[in-house]
DNA sequence: TTGTCGGCCGATCGCCGACAA
DNA sequence: TTGTCGGCGATCGGCCGACAA
């Protein structure tokens, strides 16, 4: 997976350590997520393990497009630091000195509703999408966007309505269905260095803390 | 899976040995089908192994509904018979002294075509399905049928047209889509001892030996 | 600026009898 | 008896501007 698109999908909160840097590995957190908790040999039972990053792979789930990283670690024989000591994360990778244009939008009901299109925020259309020919009436174009797997998706991009707004129509509902997107999920558009348009997905955390997206807040009775 | 429905889906060609009976196990055939060929310990390298049947489980694939059996064997310490000697299969299970009414039909193009219904052979409608009230005009009823997983499917059964014929309409195309049936696959209806209607699926062998089901034979040019 | 709605039009679904194999 | 076809009515998908938040 292209690291730029990967980071755009993961969000700015997510930082990945550089290869060769030192990190502290928390086996407890790993074990809690593993299906079959690993048994650590004696000497590994300390709550933290100082490690060096051997390799980092940027990956995406084949089914859900969710991005994740596989990080190979090797323990260092230095004495483990006390766990109460805070270890600042390695400085984020500044591989991309050129700022990459990207834009994320959380899908509204209307975006996710079947039979609807996608309302493109003006900023996204003007800075990420290929430039429209505004001399047409209405201005229309076909935009192609690559997802994390390299698959290309085709959308009809039109600028219409009163007042004028940018919309994705034909091709959008197919994308929503194939990716199984629902209101609350986010979509990421990104223009790579080579000028190529990419599209990613960031799924909402399950249940959104019980938030009911089907009912507008102003229709909720105060309890 | 209900053994009656299992046998109806498997077809009359398929016989399963009884628990406790003696069979000859052909490791070669097993190994050829296994993803990772098992390595037999020394002493098991003979081409046939006399075994006793410990248990038989009637199962169905969760995805395709295809039926199969898991048979547990234990080798007997009698000397293996020479492989050239033919071993007649154990007599088929006669657990069901009461003859079970069942009917299988290979799906035609019209049956499998989207937007179509299912043409029910008269014999099937009259002996397997619940009796229609022929005083209605046209006679209609809702029939419920359980598949191998115990899921219930709902069909509208109507007797109409000139000349009159039995059809499944509403509910049929949903069934075809969910089960991913195509022309050439077969469907099995069965009335269990308790009077319950069951439905099973028998998929056509892949490609049907290259038979082109899309072209009627009378449209084929002789070569 | 953009989220939601109702209108509307075309495509598809699916039920039907006619007809013939 | 039953497989295939064309028809046609109902439903649905999906594009649109109006309107308001």
TrEMBL record, chains A, B:
<feature type="region of interest" description="Disordered">
    <location>
        <begin position="74"/>
        <end position="93"/>
    </location>
</feature>
<protein>
    <recommendedName>
        <fullName>Auxin response factor</fullName>
    </recommendedName>
</protein>
<feature type="domain" description="TF-B3">
    <location>
        <begin position="103"/>
        <end position="205"/>
    </location>
</feature>
<comment type="similarity">
    <text>Belongs to the ARF family.</text>
</comment>
<comment type="function">
    <text>Auxin response factors (ARFs) are transcriptional factors that bind specifically to the DNA sequence 5'-TGTCTC-3' found in the auxin-responsive promoter elements (AuxREs).</text>
</comment>
<comment type="subunit">
    <text>Homodimers and heterodimers.</text>
</comment>
């Amino acid at each position: 997976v292209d690291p730029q698109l990967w980071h755009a999908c993961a969000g700015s909160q997510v930082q990945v350590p550089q290869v060769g840097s030192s990190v502290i590995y928390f086996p407890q957190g790993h074990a809690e997520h593993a299906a079959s908790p690993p048994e650590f040999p004696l000497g590994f039972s300390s709550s933290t393990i100082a490690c060096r990053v051997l390799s980092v792979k940027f990956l995406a789930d084949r089914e859900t497009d969710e991005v994740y990283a596989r990080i190979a670690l090797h323990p260092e024989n230095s004495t483990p630091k006390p766990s109460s000591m805070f270890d600042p994360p390695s400085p984020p990778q500044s591989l991309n000195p050129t700022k990459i244009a990207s834009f994320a939008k959380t899908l509204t009901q209307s975006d996710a509703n079947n039979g609807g299109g996608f309302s493109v925020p003006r900023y996204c259309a003007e800075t990420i999408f290929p430039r429209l020919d505004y001399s047409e009436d209405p201005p229309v174009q076909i935009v192609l966007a690559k997802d994390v797997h390299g698959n290309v998706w085709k959308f009809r991009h039109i600028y219409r309505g009163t007042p004028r707004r940018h919309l994705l129509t034909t091709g959008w509902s197919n994308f929503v269905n194939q990716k199984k997107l629902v209101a609350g999920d986010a979509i990421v558009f990104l223009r790579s260095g080579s000028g190529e348009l990419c599209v990613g997905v960031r799924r909402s955390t399950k249940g959104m803390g019980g938030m009911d997206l089907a009912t507008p807040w102003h229709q909720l009775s105060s309890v």
